[in-house]
Amino acid sequence: MKKISIIMLLLGMISCGSYVYQGGNNYSQIGKPNPIIEKFDLEVRVLKIEEIKSGQNNKIKVDYEVINNSELLFEKPKKRHNIFFTITTKSNKEIGHTERIYGRIPAGTSMIKKETIDLSIYEYASISASIYTD
Amino acid sequence: MKKNVLIHSFIFVLLPMLVLGQKPKQKIFYSYSWNFPTVLTSQSKLGILIDETLVPITVMSEGVSNGIDGQYAEMFTKIEIASNTFMEQLDIRSFEIVPIEQAEIRLNIIPKPGLFKIYAEEFNSGTPTSPIKAFSGNIQYSYGVEIKIENAENEIVFEKKITKKSNLLKIERYNKALIPSANQALSLAKQAFLSSPTNYVQSGNGEFKTMLYDDVIEEIHQALDVRYEREKFYLYSFNKKKGFELEGIAASIEELEVINDWKESEDYEQKLREILLPKIEFWTQESAKYNPQDKKGKKVYWGLMANISGAYYALGEFQKALDIYEKLSVVSYRNDYLYLKEFPEDKSINKKNYIAKDQNFYKNYKKIDFRGNHNPDFIAYVDRNENGEKIEKQQKTTEELEIINKKIKVISQIITLDYYFKLLAGSIQKFTDENKEGVGFVEKDAFYVELINRVFEETEKLKVTDISFYDMDEKILVTETIEALVERAEPLQRELAIEDAAADLSTKNTFELLDMLIVSVSKNIDTETQLVAILEKNIPLLTKKIFRLYPDGVARLCYMEMLVDELTTGGKLTYADNTKLYKHVFKEFKRTYTSLSSYKQSLTRYLHHSDEYKLDKFLKVYASMYFEDVENINTKFKNSHDEKRVLDILNLFIK
Hints:
The complex is a heterodimer of chains A (134) and B (655).
Chain A lengths: L1 H22 L18 E13 L2 E12 L5 E2 L5 E9 L4 E7 L3 E2 L4 E11 L3 E10 L1
Antiparallel strand pairs in A: 1-2, 2-7, 3-6, 4-5, 4-8
Chain B lengths: L1 H19 L4 E11 L9 E8 L1 E8 L13 E4 L4 H8 L5 E2 L7 E20 L8 E19 L4 E16 L1 E2 L2 E2 L3 H14 L1 H28 L2 E11 L9 H9 L12 H20 L9 H18 L3 H11 L10 H15 L26 E5 L5 E2 L6 H29 L1 H4 E3 L6 E4 L1 H16 L10 H26 L12 H15 L3 H19 L4 H18 L10 H26 L7 H15 L3 H7 L6 H9 L4
Parallel strand pairs in B: 2-5, 2-6, 2-12, 3-6
Antiparallel strand pairs in B: 1-11, 3-4, 6-7, 7-8, 9-10, 12-13, 14-15
Helix pairs in contact in B: 6-7, 7-8, 8-9, 10-12, 10-13, 10-15, 10-16, 12-13, 13-14, 13-15, 16-17, 16-20, 17-18
């Protein structure tokens, strides 16, 4: 019985984790119908980069802000909205990373998120981010 | 009767021997000698431009160029001249073939319009004394080519049209009987043509190619190349003759027969001198024994002098050969053997012409030899449409090609890892035994797990691949695709990583249970379909951006080489250690090879004909592996993987 409880607890934790990954801090259970007009004016800004170096495995922790400049609530859009990060390394390589924008961003507000990007043996030099839709 | 036989023997055998005994017998010898071109230039960079014009063909019957009763009045054919075959045949010595835009001298090959002549012809089927008049129906094809050589200043330095006629059909009988009228013969020839005009056009093109590889190539060699060619020269021997000591001369000629077998080599000229000079000396000494004015002696004298002349000619000492000819002109014997004058004279003139104003040869020809090193890819083609307008092909710069190659490399890795993972994931049941609880595996093939891990690691490595050379759309596509590859592989890789998934949960500690739960949860997350959808959408989009070839074709070409890598490279799968898995991968290799071979025709549709041989060459490499027994692959084809090979072949299909 004790074991089953532990399993249930762990299951719950892991499930939450996956939702955290998918929805971020702004995940909300409040559901409203999707706006029909899909022209969102979203903007992404990289706020902070934290380099995590451990031997041959470099990572960066990126704090970024997704700003909804449109007058519409951004929530479950028909088209997937994604962020494309381009990380330039000290050896002048470019490494790509994509992240889908989930969550609910009311008009005129923003959402701050964190993302860890693996750079393997390469060292971080600069980053740029842009938004694209599928 | 006996008497008659004796008389006849005397007349037909002995008499000629007596009379002709000291008559010089001509023998043909071969030696290599230099041929000097008619186009005089010190420049060495040659560009070749083949005009792949749609060649108009006229069909003429009854003397009118209006097709056959109005049919086939306007036909076109495209003569495809494969660059590799043309280059092999040309194999020019004193020029380096370069891309046309870098050429100092340009060689243009321009096929000329063709003509089918359909006509009847009278012939005699009997004998000259009792003739039988009959008619034949004929199809004759006339064709030609223009060779034009231009210098860097666009001046034409050589121009020649070569035209030929070939009889493609001659009908002399109909229903086993001779054809009595011209009309019937003509009608039969017309019917034959109308039954398959395309076959006649093909035959015509075949004739054209024969002309191209024989006459045209020879013409180009004579015009442009300093060549060391095997050529005839003549020497004279003698039969035994009473009163003459001719055996020594006969032996001297016999000893020289070895020359005919000598191949071109660095010391060829030296060897030739070493064998011929003593013979010249011997013939000179012998000639002193014969009086050139004596009726019988002059024949031997002439033969010996002709030998000396021939030997000097073979040695390239043309003036000495001509001096001997001068001496012979006073001997009243075989004065019509003008070759003794013409051969060395022509060569001498050509050689003298090849001396430039600075008194040096235009080229230091003995030290130049580009043969066997020409790149057929440098042959340029001009394509034209039916209106004769040029269809320009865009040439890519070296920088552009470098970027394309980088792109191809990444795409090739993505494709092969996608295919390989699918193969391995699809065969999981063969290499594992799933636990009844549906969590983890009771049995796992260690090599299978190792391989899955390796493929996963290689996929993960792609996440940090350089994408700087892609444009923005491609960067997103590549990144999304790689991420999808990794995400798709993660659950299987994690699942297999759990050691001995328990039938008895009670023996497990918390960490093991956590691992199993991760697997369980991963299984529940239904993202695989989405990931596969991304891969199925993105990989074709990526390939279409770069290649003309359909994505599956590109994929199979890449995958093939990847499987060779797996099967032959040290440190990867081995037959001895991982037999079951090795056989499985080899089966996949064979399957891929078979599908590629059967696709070959659809692959060649995307290729210029001059590149088709490259695809054949590429597939040939795999053919020998395909037919080998699986247990021998590891050893016989050790380290056969060549990344460049697949990049080269994919390069043929770029946009």
